[in-house]
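Module 6 notes. Inverse folding takes a fixed backbone as the condition and produces residue identities as the prediction. Think of it as a translation problem where the source language is geometry and the target language is the twenty amino acids. Below is one complete input and output pair. Work through it position by position during the lab.
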């Protein structure tokens, strides 16, 4: 199963919430619930992103080399009040794509050693 970046972040958030619920259920009822560790989810996400990723300013999205959507960049809530909001949004998109590429490159170098 391929997870897009946004669905993966949703999954991580869901698991964090599930973990808190599991702690409360254990405390209140003595129930034990198995929760996947967040590190496992992150690893599953990064293994499915094919580098290099790129930012598309016209579509305001970041895709991997297979043109699979990783995330959409939308920030007009704050950017609409800036002098050059489009450029700010594009800068954020480029920054995120660059950060993902750096992480993927770093992970690849560490596994190649």
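Target side of the pair, the amino acids:
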């Amino acid at each position: 199963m391929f997870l897009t970046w946004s669905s993966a972040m949703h999954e991580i958030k869901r698991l964090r919430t599930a973990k808190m619920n599991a702690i409360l259920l254990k405390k209140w009822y003595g129930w034990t619930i198995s929760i996947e560790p967040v590190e496992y989810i992150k690893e599953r996400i990064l293994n499915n992103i094919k580098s290099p990723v790129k930012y598309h300013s016209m579509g305001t999205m970041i895709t991997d080399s297979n043109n699979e959507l990783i995330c959409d960049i939308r920030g007009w809530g704050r950017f609409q009040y800036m002098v050059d909001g489009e450029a700010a949004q594009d800068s954020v998109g480029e920054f995120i794509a660059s950060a993902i590429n750096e992480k993927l490159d770093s992970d690849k170098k560490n596994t190649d050693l």
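Reference fact for the lab report: The mean pLDDT is 76.
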